[in-house]
Amino acid sequence: MTMTVTNGEVNPVTANGGFTIDKPFKIFVGYDPREDIAYEVCHHSILKRSSIPVEITPIVQSDLRTNGLYWRERGQLESTEFSFTRFLTPRLANYDGWAMFVDCDFLYLADIKELRDLIDDKYAIMCVQHDYTPKEATKMDGAVQTVYPRKNWSSMVLYNCGHPKNKVLTPEVVNTQTGAFLHRFQWLEDEEIGSIPFVWNFLEGHNKVVEGDTTTFPKAIHYTRGGPWFEAWKNCEFAELWLKEKDECVKEEKK
Ligand SMILES: [Mn+2]
């Protein structure tokens, strides 16, 4: 790619008929060595359907430790290696522009441009705001239900990395703050969190497709309980879509 320089100013990169080429959309994918194949398939599913340039980077905990960005001890409740490292996304994007974080257990079925086009600069972050509030606030015996606010919200987040509020997410904070502070976005006010249609974080086993209603058709399936790469989940809903993508991915790698 070539940059055109006029009067000392760098203009947007142009080529082939002069249209502006977008800066690549930065995507950080949570990586866990136990789920390498999930990462590969997620990566493949984004690239294959994208009509815009994307830059996909795995978030690898061991690399972050080597680079001095991550040092916290692993807690008992961390189900993946990226439970906390995901919150380094604004730092990894140098607190500039928008970047997406997504778990590796996603399968994209739509063009990522459609998601990027939903971005609104008035928000600090945007995500699917799943509602997990149980229907009854108390159990039959009167005990209060354990509600886990904003469950699954942090699994796919568009970060406005240049937003002043996100400067809070320094490596120090990511390494020391509680899971509740980070996963519930407690550094933000409610109105600073934008909403994305649920089909971009369609929870397998929770969200349902309504026949004939295209607004319920998944654009990204989240195998949040475990996907077909685990023996126990090889027959989960949408397993065949993931397995088909995996076959393609493996074939292309062999070429
Ligand atoms: Mn997940």
From TrEMBL:
Domain of life: Eukaryota
Gene3D superfamilies, alphabetized: Spore Coat Polysaccharide Biosynthesis Protein SpsA, Chain A (3.90.550.10)
InterPro entries per record: Nucleotide-diphossugar_trans (IPR029044)
Protein name as it appears in the record: Nucleotide-diphospho-sugar transferases superfamily protein
